[in-house]
Design brief:
Pfam families: TerB. With 153 residues, this protein is an all-alpha fold. The protein has 8 helices and no strands. The protein is globular, with a radius of gyration of 14 Å.
């Protein structure tokens, strides 16, 4: 099953009809892991935050969210590039929810208490690939910072 999903997600000639909204959620989860790993420090705080985001987005319990995160880690490790994740998400997730994906990415970036330049750069790239403009991405980031009760710098 895992290999079948990988082959659908990362086919050189993907069939958009073969991908489901669940595949898009798997791509979101793997993208969260990719952001967390962008600064070469993948912490327990980031793992927990990813699980919280997955639980919130998909209505999962703690164990299911932990399993989803573990599966996303494997998929992210196999993925050749970030563009494939974003293409799947853009094709299957409406623009309002793509802004929620950007918010989740910022949550992960701030989970370990520091925002690395690598994470910030990756989120800016992803936002553009998802069709979320710089202004909207900045507003989403500000909303996340306020929600987390932290300083933005």
């Amino acid at each position: 099953m895992f290999r079948n999903l990988l082959s659908r997600l990362f086919s050189d000639t993907p069939d958009p009809g073969a991908l489901s909204s669940q595949d898009a959620e798997v791509a979101v989860a793997a993208l969260l892991v990719r952001i967390a790993r962008a600064d070469d420090r993948y912490t327990d705080a980031e793992r927990v935050r990813i699980e919280n985001v997955l639980a919130r987005r998909r209505g999962l319990g703690h164990n299911e969210a932990a399993e989803g995160r573990a599966a996303a880690e494997m998929i992210e490790a196999e993925a050749p590039d970030t563009v494939r994740f974003t293409r799947i998400i853009k094709d299957r997730v409406d623009i309002a929810d793509r802004q929620n994906v950007i918010a989740a990415l910022w949550e992960i970036a701030y989970a370990d208490g520091t925002r690395g330049a690598e994470e910030e750069s990756m989120i800016r790239l992803v936002a553009g690939l998802l069709g979320v403009n710089d202004r909207d991405s900045a507003l989403v980031r500000r909303r996340v910072i306020e929600g987390l009760g932290i300083s933005g710098d």
